[in-house]
TrEMBL record:
It comes from Cryptosporidium bovis. This is Heat shock protein 70. It holds the Pfam family HSP70. It comes from the Eukaryota. GO terms for molecular function: ATP binding; ATP-dependent protein folding chaperone. Belongs to the heat shock protein 70 family. Keywords: ATP-binding, Nucleotide-binding, Stress response.
């Protein structure tokens, strides 16, 4: 079901490896997942070099705590393609705890819950930090829950709203209109983080017809209520798996 929302195709490559097929300027191009990841790492390298004013060769790359050995190796390969010497692969929740300085916050053992609702996946991890040593006690999550799902729900709402307002016209038959709508829906979602209302507005969205709809934060929360509820069970699972209760958690990131 995810593939219906993707602006690219995934096809079977040699040895059953997935190949990402995209159309750019009317030409079809194919990439391995490592090559796509390398492009992201290359861009991050360029941003970092521009900020620091010097060349970067070495990097520590983070991955989800649940990644297996082959996924971690693929990430190292992507780093090499991007021109980086990957010195170490570390777990994302560990990196988050370090970024917030939680390893330097007081003495003794500290339990930290990392709640990471990303673009496409949701991860919850429970760490124990003591004397600068990080130990992942438990992980849980949903590899099919993230920001894109919230975007999709808003897109689906707008598609139905457009159909209702325009004699049954179906936006899903026009890939370009859907891409434009998705961009505006994502922008509206971000706006609702700091405002109580946002507007999805597009000129000549489909067959010359303009489209506009106001979305309140309350309406957005109602549309995505099942997704919000779905984030609770992984939190309960990591506490149970780690043999802790909520009162044992010192910090939440």
């Amino acid at each position: 079901s995810d593939m219906t929302h993707w602006p690219f195709k995934v096809i079977r490559g040699p040895k059953d490896k997935p190949i990402i097929s995209v159309t750019y300027l009317g030409e079809s191009k194919e990439f391995h997942a490592e090559e796509i990841s390398a492009m992201v790492l290359q861009k991050m390298k360029e941003i970092s070099e521009a900020y620091l004013g010097r060349q970067i060769k070495n990097a520590v790359v983070t991955v989800p705590a649940y990644f297996n050995d082959s996924q971690r190796q693929a990430t190292k390969d992507a780093g090499a393609i991007a021109g980086l010497n990957v010195m170490r692969i570390i777990n994302e929740p560990t990196a988050a705890a370090i970024a917030y300085g939680l390893d330097k916050k007081g003495s003794g053992e500290r339990n930290v819950l990392i709640f990471d609702l990303g673009g496409g996946t949701f991860d919850v991890s429970l760490l124990t930090i003591e004397d600068g040593i990080f130990e992942v006690k438990a992980t849980a999550g949903d590899t099919h829950l993230g920001g894109e799902d919230f975007d999709n729900r808003l897109v689906e709402f707008c598609v139905q709203d457009f159909k209702r307002k325009n004699r049954g016209m179906d936006l899903t038959t026009n890939a370009r209109a859907l891409r434009r709508l998705r961009t505006q829906c994502e922008r509206a979602k971000r706006t609702l983080s700091s405002s109580t209302q946002a507007t999805v507005e597009l000129d000549s969205l489909y067959e010359g017809i303009d489209y506009s709809v106001a979305i309140s934060r309350a309406r957005f929360e109602e549309l995505c209520s099942d997704y919000f509820r779905a984030t609770l069970s992984p939190v309960e699972k990591v506490l149970k798996d780690a043999g802790m209760d909520k009162r044992s958690v010192h910090d939440v990131v």
